[in-house]
Task: inverse folding
């Protein structure tokens, strides 16, 4: 529980859940000297973000956990007993939410996380440190969950450069890689939820989703900052790998134009 610095105990947080809130005053980082202006802005924003305060008070490793909660509250994605894969899982906030909502450890639920960075464990979850694009990783994940997955999650984004077109392209490449992984491991009727920076280049990836899922929609949870280009894309009702493979075969054998 975060230390109370003021406000009313048990006050409702922005997600509607109770937590101990800080005062209404704008807080400033204690040590600003030597930091870049952008770093100063980020620190100030973090200190005054109510979602950061709520996530910390509830024991989540990141405010991103609240984003997943909000999206799941709306679309009812996570159910007890599901097998879920979390791509780019560090620091583990989404793993925490999934473990709670699938009742990991008290039934058939399975949870696998993958990241290039070492990630602190979550009880009952299998966490792999490595590259999701390595074919051996897909095999290892299938073995860990005992077959196919009911859902694949990705909160991955490339490190930002400050140049929005570049950031958009790099994050879209991660979205494409995550989708490729999902298409190789999802159960029929499974879902894929992933971060997306909207900017145009993602259209071809969305086209692939629309070919392979019944419904594709953009989602922006309340915990996503309003000024951010970040949103999420939710593809549900996976048609199944047999249909995906047939479509790929048809595309490869189609007569060229002209």
Result:
């Amino acid at each position: 529980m975060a230390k109370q610095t003021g406000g009313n105990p048990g006050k409702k947080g922005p997600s509607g859940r109770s937590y101990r809130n800080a005062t209404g005053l704008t807080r400033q980082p204690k040590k600003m000297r030597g930091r870049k202006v952008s770093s100063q802005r980020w620190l100030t924003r973090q200190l005054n973000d109510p979602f950061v305060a709520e996530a910390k008070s509830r024991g989540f490793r990141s405010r991103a956990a609240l984003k997943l909660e909000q999206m799941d509250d709306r679309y009812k994605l996570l159910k007890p007993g599901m097998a879920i894969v979390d791509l780019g899982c560090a620091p583990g906030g989404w793993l925490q939410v999934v473990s709670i909502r699938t009742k990991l450890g008290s039934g058939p639920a399975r949870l696998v996380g993958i990241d290039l960075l070492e990630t602190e464990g979550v009880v009952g979850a299998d966490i792999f440190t490595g590259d999701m694009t390595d074919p051996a990783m897909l095999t290892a994940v299938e073995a860990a969950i005992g077959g196919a997955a009911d859902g694949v999650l990705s909160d991955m984004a490339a490190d930002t450069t400050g140049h929005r077109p570049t950031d958009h392209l790099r994050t879209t490449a991660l979205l494409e890689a995550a989708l490729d992984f999902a298409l190789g491991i999802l159960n029929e009727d499974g879902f894929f939820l992933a971060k997306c920076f909207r900017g145009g280049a993602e259209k071809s990836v969305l086209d692939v989703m629309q070919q392979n899922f019944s419904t594709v929609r953009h989602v922006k949870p309340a915990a996503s900052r309003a000024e951010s280009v970040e949103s999420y894309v939710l593809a549900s009702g996976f048609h199944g790998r047999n249909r995906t493979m047939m479509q790929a075969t048809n595309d490869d054998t189609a007569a060229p134009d002209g």
